[in-house]
C-alpha cells in the first residue's frame, strides 16, 4: 500500500524537472473570472482570490481550509483582517469551493520548501509552480497543523496587505491626494488634512480591477491589534443551538438511506451474498455491491475491498436489513493474522535488521557502547488506533451518467472531487462537491473512500443516497495509526552522561523527523526496518510523532533514572545548545512546580516534544491506586512562535492532550482472524468527563517561525503519563494502553488482598 | 401511530413502533440538531429530554413516547428565542470545537441543572460521563456548567480559578 511522502513529491519531477508541466495557470492572488463566478454574489467585489467586500462594507475571507473543530478559519480570518486594517465586526469567512484556484499552494510550499527564503522576484514563479503542483495532485488539504503557519503566514496576510494597498491607491487617485497621506483603520480610508473619509466598500469595485501585489509590506508583531487576540470563534454560536450543518444534516428531494458493510478482513472480496431476507424487509429498496477502490496521491492514499450496501427509505430500516444479510468473504489467507502474529513479525524483523536504513548515524555508536559504564535496553510497543470521530463517516450523493454531486465533510475537498471524478469516469468539471463542517477529522477524513462508496451506491440505485457508517463500521473500516515496535539501547558514562543512543523501529512514515531526539548525545544510530502488514494505515493526529514521542521521551526518562538523575535536569543538561527547547522545558517545570514533594501513590512525569514546527513541554500528575491510574493534572507549555489566537491555541493543546490521553489510557485496536476485533465505545473507549484531568496551558511567543497547534499537544502526553506512573509506582509502562499494565503494588497484588477485592 | 409533544408542538407519526426517535426527528421531522454518534447509547451525541430527563434518542423506541413531552436542542432556547444560560456559557467558554457532540452535552447538562442547580464535581461526573467529546473539551464543559451554577470554576482561557 502506498503512502505519500515528501520525497515522493520531490521525485515526481518538481525539482528533478522530469516532465511535470509547469505553467503559471493563475498568478497568486489574482482573482480569476471563474473564481469571481464561484464566490462573489450580488453586490460583492472580489478584490483578491481570498477576499471579497460587499456594499455594506462587510469583508469576507474565502478560506481554502475546512473546519473539523480546530478553529483555524477564525484565526486565518484574523490574519487577513490584521493586514487589511479591517474592522473585526465587519469580517466574515466562508470556505473556498473545491476548485483548482483554491488549491493549497501555501501548504505545498510549506512541505516542499520549508525554511527556504525566496527572493521577492521569484516568489510569483515559485507560487505559480506550487499552485500548478497542488492542482495536479488535488491538494486542498487541512492537516499537518499547516493552516496558520502556511496559508495564513504566506498568503492570507499578504492578501490582506495587498488589498489594503489597492484600496489606498484607488482612493488616492479619486481624491487626488498622495497615497502616503491616506490612513486606514477599521475598514475605513481617511485623509485627515482634508477631513475626507470613506468605507472600503466605496472603492472596492475599482480596486477589484487592479492586480494584487504578491509582496506587499507586512506589519511587525508590535503593530498587531487583531492577531494575538483571542477572538471568539465564528462557528461557535451555531454549535450550541443545533443549527450548525454537518454533511449528515443534508436532505435532498427523494433521498434514500444506505447502510454499509465492507469486508472485515481488509482487502477482501465478497464471495457470496444471500440477500433474500433483507430484500423482503419493509422499506428496503435495493441491495448493491461496491467493488474495491484505491487512491494513490500526495494525500488520501488508500486501498479498500468490497462493500455491500442496503438502501432503504430510512436509515434504521437499512441498518436492520444489513444485519439480515448472509455474507461470505474471501480473505486470501489474511484470516490467520492476529495482533500477536503482527508483533512477532515486528520483533523478528527488528532482530533480523534486514535492509535497516538510518535516519541518523552520528559518531561511533559501537565504540560508545563498548566504553559505556552502563548500557540499558528496552522494547516499546504501541497498538493500532482508530480515529472514532464523533460524526461517523457519511456522504450524500446524486450521480447520473454525466454528473455527480456530493455532500460531505472532508479534509481535502479538491482531492476528493478529483478522486471521485477519476473513479466515476467523469471530468472534474462534472463533479460538484459541497463541503460541510466535520464532526471531527483527526486524519480519517483525508481518505476519500467513504465519499466514493456513497457515489457508487447512488449511481447504482439512480436516486439521491445518504450513506452513513454505523459506529462498528467506523471502527472496523478505519485507516489506523500503525502498530509499531521500537527497540532501544542507551549508553551512560561513569558520570551518568548519555553518550550513546541506538534505536530500531518498524515502518517509517511521516514526518521524517519524528523518531529523532533533540538531545546532545554524541553517538546516535537511529534506523528502521520495513515490516508491512495488511492492516490499512493512515494519518492519525500527529502521525508518527504519536508513537515516537512516547518511545523516545519514555526511554530518555529510563536513562535519567539509570543515571540516578532528575528526569527534568537530565534533559536540561543535554539542551544547552537548544535555547528554545530549553526555555519550554524550564517553563513547564516551573509552572508545574517540579520538585514539590508528592503524597504516597502519586507521581509526576515530564516530556518535551517538537512537532509540526512547535515545541510542547508537558508535566502529568497521576494517582495510582489499586492498579488504577487517575490523571489529576496536566501542565503544558507551547512555543508556536506566535499564537495568532491564544485561546484557540490553548483549546487545541487541551484537545490534543485529551486525544493523546484517550489513546494512552484506553486505545487499542486488535487484529483477530485478520479483522479488527473492536466495534463500539464499549471496547474502544475514550477519556470522558469523570477521568479528564485539569489542563493548564501556557504560551510562549518566542518570535520563531510559526508552528502548528492542532497536533503538537498529542505526542507528549503518553510519555509524560508513563513517566509519572513510574514515579508513582516504580513500574515502567512500555506497552500501551495503560489499562493493560499491571500497576498494582506487591501488596495490592498479593493473593490475600486480591481476595478482599473479589 | 404515536402522538407526543416535541418542543411544545403536538406531533403524530406513523412508523414501525420500535424505530428509535432519533431517526424520526432527523429524517421525518427535519430537526437535525440531535446527532447520531453510536446507535448504542454509548456516546450521548443524541441526548434529548423526555419529560424533563436526559435520554438517548438512539435507543428510545418511538412507541415508548406516546403522550410524552420531548425536548431537543432546537427547543432548549427560551420561548422568546433567548439562549439557555448553558448555551451562553458554552459560548463564553468557547466550548465547541467540531461541535458534533455539543447538542448532547448541552441536553445532559441542562437536565442535570434542572434537577440539581448546585452540582458537585462528582454530580457533574455522573451526569456527563455518558457524553463523549473526541475534541476533549471536558474541562471547558465543566467550567461552563459551574459558571451557570454560580460555583467557582477553572478558567482555561485565563489560566486561573474564577468566581
General description of the model:
The complex is a heterodimer of chains A (758) and B (163). In chain A, the strands form eight sheets. In chain A, strands 10-13-8-20-17-18-19 form a seven-stranded mixed beta sheet. A five-stranded mixed beta sheet of chain A has the order 15-23-22-21-16, with helices on both faces. Chain A is built from 21 helices and 29 strands. By secondary structure, chain A is an alpha+beta fold. Chain A has three domains: 6-229, Aldehyde Oxidoreductase, domain 4, CATH 3.30.365.10; 247-333 and 393-468, Aldehyde oxidase/xanthine dehydrogenase, molybdopterin binding domain (Aldehyde Oxidoreductase, domain 4); 340-384 and 480-747, Aldehyde Oxidoreductase, domain 4 (2-Layer Sandwich). Helices cover 31% and strands 23% of the residues of chain A. Chain B has 163 residues and is an alpha+beta fold. Chain B has a five-stranded mixed beta sheet with strand order 2-1-5-3-4, covered by helices on one side. In chain B, a hairpin with a 2-residue loop joins strand 3 (47-50) and strand 4 (53-56). Chain B starts with a strand and ends with a strand. Chain B has five helices and seven strands; from the N terminus they run ββαβββααααββ. Chain B is 30% helix and 17% strand. Chain B has two domains: 2-75, Ubiquitin-like (UB roll) (Roll), CATH 3.10.20; 85-155, DNA polymerase, domain 1 (Orthogonal Bundle). The mean pLDDT of chain B is 96. Classes of the chains: A alpha+beta (758), B alpha+beta (163). At the A-B interface, helix 9, helix 18 and strand 29 of A face helix 2, helix 3, helix 4 and helix 5 of B.
How far do the termini of chain B sit from each other?
A: 50 Å
Q: How many distinct domains of chain B?
A: 2
Number of strands of chain B: 7
Strand-residue proportion of chain A: 15-25%
Low-confidence runs of chain B: none
What percent of residues of chain A adopt helix (DSSP H or I)? 25-40%
Which homologous superfamily in CATH is the superfamily of the largest domain in chain A?
Aldehyde oxidase/xanthine dehydrogenase, molybdopterin binding domain
* Average predicted confidence as pLDDT of chain B: 96
Q: What integer value in Å does the Rg of chain B equal?
A: 16 Å
Q: Roughly how many Å apart are the termini of chain A?
A: 48 Å
Q: Which CATH first-tier class of the largest domain in chain A would you pick?
A: Alpha Beta
Inertia-based shape of chain A: globular
Q: Level of helix content of chain B? A: 25-40%
Major beta-sheet overview of chain B: 5 strands, mixed
Tell me the major beta sheet of chain A: 7 strands, mixed
**CATH evolutionary superfamily of the largest domain in chain B:** Beta-grasp domain
Amino acid at each position: 500500500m502506498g503512502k505519500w511522502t515528501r520525497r515522493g513529491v520531490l521525485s515526481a519531477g518538481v525539482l528533478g524537472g522530469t516532465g511535470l508541466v509547469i505553467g503559471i495557470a493563475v498568478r497568486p492572488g489574482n482573482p480569476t473570472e471563474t473564481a469571481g463566478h464561484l464566490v462573489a454574489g450580488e453586490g460583492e467585489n472580489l478584490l483578491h482570490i481570498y477576499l471579497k467586500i460587499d456594499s455594506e462594507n462587510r469583508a469576507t475571507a474565502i478560506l481554502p481550509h475546512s473546519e473539523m473543530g480546530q478553529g483555524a478559519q477564525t484565526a486565518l480570518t484574523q490574519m487577513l483582517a490584521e493586514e487589511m486594517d479591517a474592522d473585526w465586526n465587519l469580517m466574515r469567512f466562508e470556505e473556498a469551493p473545491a476548485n483548482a484556484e483554491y488549491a493549497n499552494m501555501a501548504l505545498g510550499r510549506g512541505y516542499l520548501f520549508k525554511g527556504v527564503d525566496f527572493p521577492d522576484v521569484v516568489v510569483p514563479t515559485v507560487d505559480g509552480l506550487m499552485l500548478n503542483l497542488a492542482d495536479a495532485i488535488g491538494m486542498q488539504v487541512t492537516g499537518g497543523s499547516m493552516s496558520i503557519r502556511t496559508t495564513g503566514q504566506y498568503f492570507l496576510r499578504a492578501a490582506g496587505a495587498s488589498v489594503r494597498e489597492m484600496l489606498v491607491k484607488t482612493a488616492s487617485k479619486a481624491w487626488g491626494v498622495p497615497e502616503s497621506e491616506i490612513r486606514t483603520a477599521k475598514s475605513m480610508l481617511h485623509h485627515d488634512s482634508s477631513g475626507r473619509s470613506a468605507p472600503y466598500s466605496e472603492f472596492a469595485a475599482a480596486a477589484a480591477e487592479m492586480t494584487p501585489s504578491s509582496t506587499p509590506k507586512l506589519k511587525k508583531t508590535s503593530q498587531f491589534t487583531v492577531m494575538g487576540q483571542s477572538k471568539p470563534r465564528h462557528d461557535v454560536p451555531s454549535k450550541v443551538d443545533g443549527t450548525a450543518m454537518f454533511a449528515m444534516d443534508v436532505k435532498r428531494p427523494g433521498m434514500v438511506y444506505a447502510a454499509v458493510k465492507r469486508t472485515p478482513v481488509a482487502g477482501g472480496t465478497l464471495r457470496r451474498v444471500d440477500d433474500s431476507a433483507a430484500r423482503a424487509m419493509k422499506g428496503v429498496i435495493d441491495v448493491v455491491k461496491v467493488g474495491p477502490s484505491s487512491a494513490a496521491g500526495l494525500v488520501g492514499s488508500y486501498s479498500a475491498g468490497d462493500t455491500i450496501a442496503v438502501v432503504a427509505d430510512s436509515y434504521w430500516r437499512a441498518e436492520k436489513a444489513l444485519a439480515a444479510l448472509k455474507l461470505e468473504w474471501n480473505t486470501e489467507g489474511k484470516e490467520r493474522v492476529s495482533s500477536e502474529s503482527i508483533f512477532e513479525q515486528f520483533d523478528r524483523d527488528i532482530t533480523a535488521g534486514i535492509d535497516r536504513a538510518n535516519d541518523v548515524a552520528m559518531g561511533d555508536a559501537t565504540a560508545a557502547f563498548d566504553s559505556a559504564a552502563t548500557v540499558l535496553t528496552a522494547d516499546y510497543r504501541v497498538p493500532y488506533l482508530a480515529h472514532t470521530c464523533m460524526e461517523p463517516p457519511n456522504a450524500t450523493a446524486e450521480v447520473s451518467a454525466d454528473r455527480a454531486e456530493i455532500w460531505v465533510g472532508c479534509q481535502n475537498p479538491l482531492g476528493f472531487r478529483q478522486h471521485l471524478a477519476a473513479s466515476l469516469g467523469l471530468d472534474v468539471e462534472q463533479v460538484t462537491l459541497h463541503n460541510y463542517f466535520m464532526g471531527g477529522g483527526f486524519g480519517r477524513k483525508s481518505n476519500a473512500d467513504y465519499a466514493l462508496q456513497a457515489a457508487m451506491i447512488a449511481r447504482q440505485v439512480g436516486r439521491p443516497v445518504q450513506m452513513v457508517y454505523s459506529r462498528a463500521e467506523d471502527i472496523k473500516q478505519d485507516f489506523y495509526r500503525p502498530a509499531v515496535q521500537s527497540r532501544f539501547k542507551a549508553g551512560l558514562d561513569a558520570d551518568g552522561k548519555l553518550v550513546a543512543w541506538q534505536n530500531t523501529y518498524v515502518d517509517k512514515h511521516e514526518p521524517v523527523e519524528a523518531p529523532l531526539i533533540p538531545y546532545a548525545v554524541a553517538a546516535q544510530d537511529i534506523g528502521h526496518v520495513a515490516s508491512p502488514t495488511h492492516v490499512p494505515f493512515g494519518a492519525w493526529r500527529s502521525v508518527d510523532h504519536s508513537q515516537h514521542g512516547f518511545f523516545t521521551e519514555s526511554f530518555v526518562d529510563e536513562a535519567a533514572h539509570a543515571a540516578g538523575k532528575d528526569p527534568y535536569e537530565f534533559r536540561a543538561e543535554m539542551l544547552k545548545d537548544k535555547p528554545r527547547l530549553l526555555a519550554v522545558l524550564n517553563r513547564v517545570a516551573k509552572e508545574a512546580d517540579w520538585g514539590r514533594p508528592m503524597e504516597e501513590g502519586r507521581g509526576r512525569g515530564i516530556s518535551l516534544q517538537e512537532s509540526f514546527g512547535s515545541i510542547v513541554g508537558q508535566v502529568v500528575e497521576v494517582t495510582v491506586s489499586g492498579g488504577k491510574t487517575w490523571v489529576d493534572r496536566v501542565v503544558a507549555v507551547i512555543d508556536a512562535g506566535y499564537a495568532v489566537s491564544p485561546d484557540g491555541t490553548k483549546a487545541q493543546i487541551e484537545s490534543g492532550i485529551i486525544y493523546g490521553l484517550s489513546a494512552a489510557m484506553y486505545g487499542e485496536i486488535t487484529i483477530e482472524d485478520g479483522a479488527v476485533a473492536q466495534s463500539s465505545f464499549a471496547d474502544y473507549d475514550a477519556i470522558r468527563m469523570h477521568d479528564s484531568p485539569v489542563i493548564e496551558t501556557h504560551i510562549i511567543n518566542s518570535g520563531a517561525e510559526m508552528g502548528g497547534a492542532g497536533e503538537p499537544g498529542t505526542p507528549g502526553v503518553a510519555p509524560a503519563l508513563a513517566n509519572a506512573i513510574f514515579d508513582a509506582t516504580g513500574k515502567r509502562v512500555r506497552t500501551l494502553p495503560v489499562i493493560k499494565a499491571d500497576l498494582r503494588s506487591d501488596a495490592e497484588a498479593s493473593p490475600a488482598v486480591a481476595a478482599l477485592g473479589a | 401511530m404515536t402522538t407526543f409533544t416535541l418542543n411544545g408542538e403536538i406531533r403524530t407519526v406513523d412508523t414501525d413502533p420500535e424505530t428509535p426517535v432519533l431517526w424520526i426527528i432527523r429524517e421525518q421531522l427535519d430537526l437535525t440538531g440531535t446527532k447520531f454518534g453510536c446507535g448504542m447509547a454509548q456516546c450521548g451525541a443524541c441526548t434529548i429530554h423526555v419529560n424533563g430527563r436526559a435520554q438517548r434518542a438512539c435507543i428510545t423506541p418511538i412507541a415508548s413516547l406516546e403522550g410524552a413531552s420531548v425536548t431537543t436542542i432546537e427547543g432548549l432556547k427560551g420561548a422568546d428565542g433567548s439562549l439557555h444560560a448553558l448555551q451562553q456559557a458554552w459560548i463564553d467558554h468557547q466550548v465547541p470545537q467540531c461541535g458534533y457532540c455539543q447538542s448532547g452535552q448541552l441536553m445532559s447538562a441542562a437536565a442535570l441543572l434542572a434537577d440539581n442547580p448546585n452540582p458537585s464535581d462528582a454530580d457533574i461526573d455522573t451526569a456527563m460521563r455518558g457524553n463523549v467529546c473526541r475534541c476533549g473539551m471536558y474541562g471547558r464543559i465543566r467550567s461552563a456548567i459551574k459558571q451557570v451554577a454560580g460555583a467557582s470554576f477553572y478558567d482555561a482561557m485565563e489560566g486561573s480559578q474564577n468566581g
